[in-house]
Backbone:
């Protein structure tokens, strides 16, 4: 599938292979005219990164240094990432605060609602392999 066919379903960005290290490749991102008008520019971070390099583990295709490629990230993954990084921990904290404030002093309920985030983020860290596979950046050869 070509990058132009993916546009409605995915964000694409042109680049060149800068380095290959065993099972990973580093892609040097080229300037993209679409970044200037993109509504997700503030959340993306690619348009503002100064070195503009992305390291991709296990790209699934053989790449040579200097080869032009297109990076592809599915659009639905952005909402999923925002949910797991911001929405779910906020709901967990607020629900813990409401439940604990019925049984404990206010300061203790507030402390507990903050402490409940420690096991949450520890579990995210332990599940980083799952999330790394779920939020995969794909490479297409041009």
Residues:
């Amino acid at each position: 599938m070509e990058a132009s066919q993916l546009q409605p379903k995915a964000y694409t960005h042109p680049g060149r292979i800068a380095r290959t290290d065993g099972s990973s490749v580093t892609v040097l991102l080229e300037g993209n005219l679409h970044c200037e008008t993109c509504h997700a520019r503030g959340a993306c971070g690619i348009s503002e990164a100064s070195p503009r390099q992305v390291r991709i583990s296990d790209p699934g295709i053989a790449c040579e240094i200097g080869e032009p490629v297109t990076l592809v990230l599915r659009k639905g993954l952005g909402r999923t990432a925002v949910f797991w990084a911001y929405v779910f921990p906020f709901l967990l904290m607020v629900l813990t605060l409401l439940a604990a404030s019925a049984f404990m002093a206010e300061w203790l309920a507030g402390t507990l609602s903050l402490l409940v985030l420690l096991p949450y983020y520890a579990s995210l860290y332990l599940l980083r392999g799952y999330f790394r596979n779920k939020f995969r950046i794909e490479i297409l050869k041009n």
User: Anything to note?
Assistant: The helical segments are 3-6, 33-37, 41-44, 76-101, 106-115, 117-126, 128-134. The chain has two domains: 3-75+135-141, 78-129. The chain has a mean pLDDT of 82. DSSP finds seven helices and five strands in the chain.
